[in-house]
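Table S2 (continued). Query chain:
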Amino acid sequence: MRDYDESQKELQPASQSFQQNGPQERPRHVLFILLILLAGVIIIGAGGFMAWQSSTHLAASSPTNTKIALGSQTGESTSGTGEHKGPGIAQPTVPGQNDPRIYWDTIQAQFAQGIHLSVSEAQQKLQAANAQTKSQHSTDPGAPVSTVAQQQGIATDQLRRIEIGAIQQGCTQLVRQGTLTQEQADQRVQIAQSWDQSTLNQYILRAFNINQSTQKN
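Corresponding output:
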């Protein structure tokens, strides 16, 4: 009987220890799993946020695909980089079409100065060249500008620099007036730099309010 009592006393502490430790070990185990899951959610969330930030940055830094519209409204479009591929599309996408007149006046003045003419002289010569281009059924609506430049002894690469410089000066005036930010002005100049020669010429003709519609054979 004494041996039975002693064995029961030995079992009681073990039973009490199990009752005390068992319930505590289970919450610790569950808490450990929850912490792991929480850490996983945080890592996934941080990774997704970084990916979103990266894609946003790339989208902001990539060049804008701008379509332009110059010359006659013939329905032909331009490439995604802004390089002209035809006589033009609907007028609403012409860069600067709604800008103050000083923008176009500045382009006129800078271009005329670059080819060694006054604004009125450049206007007259461009109009005459445009009439000649139409009579010859030219498929290049920018040809009148090249014609006048050749008459003035201006090479094609020099003509391009004059045209880009005129657009840049026009944008500078808009920045001074607060119509454009410097970033917007720089972007417009970059778009103009991506145009081919015919498109640049058409933009100059537009500045002089000359209709560049063409006729095809």
